[in-house]
Design a protein that fits this description.
This protein has helices at residues 85-96, 101-117, 137-148, 177-191, 214-227, 239-249, 253-259, 277-286, 294-299, 307-313, 333-347, 354-368, 402-408, 435-452; strands at 4-13, 21-30, 33-39, 49-54, 58-62, 64-65, 120-127, 151-158, 200-206, 230-235, 267-271, 289-292, 317-319, 386-390, 414-419, 422-426, 429-430. It is of the alpha/beta class and 456 residues long. Strands 1, 2, 3, 4, 5, 14, 15, 16 and 17 form a nine-stranded mixed β-sheet that branches. An eight-stranded parallel β-sheet has the order 6-7-8-9-10-11-12-13. It is globular. The chain starts with a strand and ends with a helix.
Length: 456
């Protein structure tokens, strides 16, 4: 029997191709799908309505889609506060290399909890630190996502270039090339679900040009395409990376990526801050996506990505929290505002508007993860991943435009969040987890890591 959820009397921002909005409208969910979206009340005579919600004072949007993160960093927030990327990595790698399965589970649960409370319905994580003999780290993240009910893309990362080979991570924190490729293939075979409405997908994700050999980059691309999964890595994040690529490979990051098979419609890169016109044209020509991480880029003084130019060229762009050691809030909904503000600092008052920012965090993210046919907009037949934001509190009540209230105003409370039509957040609280217990768990595991790493 079909079960329906009906939301009425709410403002609706569909983020469809026409950016259709309704000042007062409805959304009807039937099981795990959106059945109808439109102006005014829901169609009369609906049967099997399990829940009817009065959305007065609320805005309904697609669920937010996070396109870049490192969950394990939840345990090292607040460290290396005044460092650029390379110094930050060198300072933190020795601590990160001591993580284990219980730590990663706690960090993933904490990261996912905060994002879900802030409207994220699809999460992504790029995990690339695999110390030997520390358990099933990727499985720990997958378990945490399933328990909270969040749709998840797990990017199985890897590093095979340690300090002795000119990389930044200590040698004991990296894998061999063969180990990385075998483990990535095993993760795909064990976990990847390519079906419509899938709650879990795997991507192949060598870490970055300065921590990965050219062989691993090339072989990972071949593996991913043989298995039909997407590819993810860091790209063009800092001027130091640009210099590194020229010194080591004799070319810039984008040309290097193209030479290793890493441009294409099945690829997305995190950051892409230092991109010239030719780089942007190459991404647009090949359909390569970008995960824009404004808060992390500001925290590490990496620079401001040329997002307006990317969008104008047709590059798919989504938003990313990035690891919480470089974005301690860990919340994607704040990135809507930060993306708009930071891009205006570089490009002027018309560089990005509120609706473009919302699109980056929803449909843009779905594009980047290869799921735009399923999620990212409120349209009949798409998956019922949506958020009901309360925008009539004292923090928002004088902003007449609900999208502006969400993007430019204070963080809006989440009254309801659905993934596949199932409740993940209700009245600002997680529906499937004890938040106080999660806080205790993450605090304890962060303390244990600090003690092991000699920081406590």
């Amino acid at each position: 029997m079909t079960q329906r959820i009906v939301i009425e009397n709410a403002a609706v921002a569909t983020v469809d191709a026409a950016d259709t909005e309704y000042a007062t409208g409805h959304v009807v969910v039937a099981d795990h799908l959106i059945e109808s979206v439109g102006a005014g009340p829901a169609p009369a005579g609906l049967e099997d309505v399990a829940r009817r919600i009065d959305g007065t004072g609320h805005l309904v949007t697609p669920g937010l889609v996070n396109t870049h993160h490192h969950f394990y960093q939840w345990l090292t927030r607040g460290l290396a506060q005044d460092s650029n990327l390379f110094n930050w990595l060198v300072e933190l790698y020795p601590t990160w290399a001591r993580i284990d399965e219980p730590m990663v589970y706690a960090a993933a649960a904490g990261s996912l909890a905060v994002m879900a409370r802030g409207g994220v319905t699809t999460a992504m994580d790029h995990h690339y630190v695999f110390p030997r003999g520390t358990g099933d780290l990727l499985g720990a993240e997958i378990r945490a996502a399933a328990e909270l009910g969040v749709r998840f893309t797990a990017a199985r990362g890897s590093m095979d270039r340690g300090e002795s080979s000119g990389g930044l991570p200590p040698d004991f924190a990296v894998e061999t090339t063969e180990e990385a490729l075998l483990a990535t293939e095993a993760a795909i075979d064990t976990h990847h679900d390519a079906s419509f409405a899938s709650m879990l997908r795997i991507a192949a994700a060598p870490c970055s040009p300065f921590s990965v050999s050219t062989e691993l980059m090339r072989e990972a691309a071949t593996l991913a395409r043989r298995k039909g999964v997407r590819l993810h890595t860091h790209g063009s994040e800092t001027v130091e990376e640009e210099k590194f690529c020229h010194e080591l490979f004799g070319m810039g990051p984008t040309d290097y990526f193209e030479s290793t098979g890493w441009l294409g419609g099945d690829v997305w890169m995190a950051h892409c801050v230092h991109m010239n016109d030719s780089d942007i044209a190459a991404f647009a020509r090949t359909g390569t996506g970008v995960a824009h991480c404004p808060s992390s880029n500001a925290r590490l003084a990496a620079g401001i990505a040329r997002v307006p130019e990317m969008l104008a060229a047709g590059v798919p762009v989504g938003l990313g929290v990035d690891g919480t050691a470089s974005n301690e809030s860990g919340e994607l909904h704040t990135e809507l505002r930060n993306a708009l503000l930071i891009n205006r600092l570089r490009g002027g008052e018309k560089a990005l508007n509120a609706r473009q920012a919302l699109r980056l965090g929803t449909y843009g993210g779905a594009q980047v993860l290869g799921r735009a046919a399923e999620i990212g907009s409120l349209e009949a037949g798409k998956l019922a991943d949506l958020v009901l934001w309360k925008v009539d509190t004292v923090a928002h009540a004088s902003i007449a435009d609900p999208v502006a209230a969400l993007v430019l105003g204070a963080p809006a409370p989440v009254t309801l969040s659905l993934v596949n039509g199932r409740t993940v957040v209700e009245d600002g609280r997680l529906a499937r987890a004890d938040e106080d217990a999660l806080a205790r768990l993450t605090r304890a595991e962060a303390r244990r890591l600090a003690e092991i790493a000699g920081l406590a």
